[in-house]
Amino acid sequence: xxxxxxxxxxxxxxxxxxxxxxxxxxxxxxxxxxxxxxxxxxxxxxxxxxxxxxxxxxxxxxxxxxxxxxxxxxxxxxxxxxxxxxxxxxxxxxxxxxxxxxxxxxxxxxxxxxxxxxxxxxxxxxxxxxxxxxxxxxxxxxxxxxxxxxxxxxxxxxxxxxxxxxxxxxxxxxxxxxxxxxxxxxxxxxxxxxxxxxxxxx
Length: 202
Hints:
alpha+beta; 2 domains; 3-stranded antiparallel β-sheet; 4 helices; about 35% helix; elongated
């Protein structure tokens, strides 16, 4: 079972990825049109038809390239745009971090929900659910925020340093603890080149 199947593949992630791919294609088409259109006579229908075919192929390739990068974890979102996320995390060390948070915040309605769903090798795999939470990926670590600051229009607010006032969050000190994060606004982060095809289900 794949990580995307376990998390359910939030529809917003699919839509955002498609939108990003379309934007990448449009940018590539504008660039190539600018390079090739100069010097073509507007009355030369054959030349213009060839140009359109070339531009169309460039757009298709740009779309395929973006999807490939996105699926390989090379076009990741590094922070939440809006509250709400699900994530696939692994290792007993990650579990211990969350259990420590639960012990410090008993009964907090914003607490994450952590459910063990299987394993990869010797590592237990957990689905992390944070309906009102946010994430931010830094250099070699990721931090989850159960109760992030949110603007009037529903956007997650980070400071210039990339954290929240008081910096209240759950930090995993290695990106190896995280397989995939899907945000409610279509954000996607996944470990580059890592997508286990088979996770032993509980």
